Input
Amino acid sequence: MVTVKKVLTGESLVEEYKKTHPGSLKLHEKAVKLLPADGATHAARILDPFRPYITHATGSRKWDIDGNEYICYVMGHGSLILGHSHPAVVQAVQEQITKGVHYGENHALEVEWAELISSMMPVAERIEFCACGQEANIMAIRLARIYTGRSRILRFDQNYHGWSDEVAIPGTAGALQPEVTIIPMNDLDAVEKELAKKEYAILFNEGGGATMAGQVPWWNMDVVHALSGLTKKYGTLWHIDEVVTGFRDSRGGWQERVGVKPDLTSLGKCVGGGIPVGAVVGRADIMKAFDPHVPLEKRISHAGTWNSNPIQGAGGVAACKLYLDGAPQKKAYELGSYLRDEGNKVLKGRNISGRLYGRTVVHLYLGPIEYEPSDETLPPTKDVKKITNPAMAPIKARLCLHLMQRGVATMGARFFVLSAAHTKNDIDQTIEAFDSSLDDMVAEGAFKKA
Ligand SMILES: Cc1ncc(COP(=O)(O)O)c(C=O)c1O
Output
């Protein structure tokens, strides 16, 4: 881990970063000539001047090509609640690789994996594996269209479901969404008004609230609890996207935490223990569309090359076995609470108007404190515009670079993804880095510009 003692303000931070990351700089210079997103391969990996090039990772830590060590709060974009290279997942995948990576056939692991998923999440009466979370969402739309005979999609503002046309953020360049209607979160009247049109095949919401388990949370749980009854009343299927929260928020996902049961759910990230995978799970009568005996016009012929290959099965079974007792989820939650509480002491101590909030994904809010929520997992405002204020993005990006230089890797300092592999010592070091980063940012006038 890099220890930063000198003051790093203005250009000196970028200069120091480049000086301590020469190998990454060299690779970045090559990458920008080939990889179109400023050399990055995921929107969240874009950082000015560049993110480090990682060579290996274990537990809560990762190391870059220049030997810099990081406490990782990216955690495979949320997929690694067990931490990097968990021994059980590594062993299972290593053993499987020597036996074949893709049979193009059935294998026992997929049955065991489906049994594990079904045992943790009651909605998963049937499971259809695919390659990633958004594929599961696309498939959920197809299933709902077949089941209801309708075509329209009802979604909540800010909720993230992937980048393909009908699930992309509204206004995404090039995305066509003629069948999609977006309504505000927490607005039950808007939900009922739209559903009553009886045009919608499916209602989507993200587990925990919008963006990474609830950057914009559900403040009104009455709304969430009403969704089941309202969708049934108007003949729409209710889908919860648990790609982030599935087996991260609790043993049965966010739906178990809040005590609801949708018709369909999407899984991804943690369900493969870090091996790329997705799954749409749901009621048996809806999932009947995959049955080869149903008439062609009601049938989905799902032929994905990567559907449930044995590497995914090995990683997925190893990870899901560890989720069964809820211990990793509990540990990540406790560490998230500790990070949140200690980080908030730093913000308050420096008179910076902002808060850390959340559960196993801890979000950073910078903006006015409009009320003190009794539940510390919630932000101190109910104004979505303030939570997602684009003016804060450059400040968070700057904080991200300050933290990176101090050995703390985040996704743009927007949030910290916890795992069961993090330790109290990691959090203490993170808080030290957070404090010292804010120190330099105050000195460079970052918060005055806000
Ligand atoms: C809630 C949610 N749904 C869907 C997706 C898309 O999953 P994937 O990137 O595996 O396609 C993501 C990705 O971050 C997500 O956060």
Observations:
- The mean pLDDT is 96.
- Residues 78 and 163 are 17 Å apart (CA to CA).
- The pocket of pyridoxal-5'-phosphate is lined by residues 77, 132-134, 137, 160-162, 206, 241, 243-244, 268, 278 (CB under 6 Å).
- Residues 327-349 form the longest helix (23 residues).
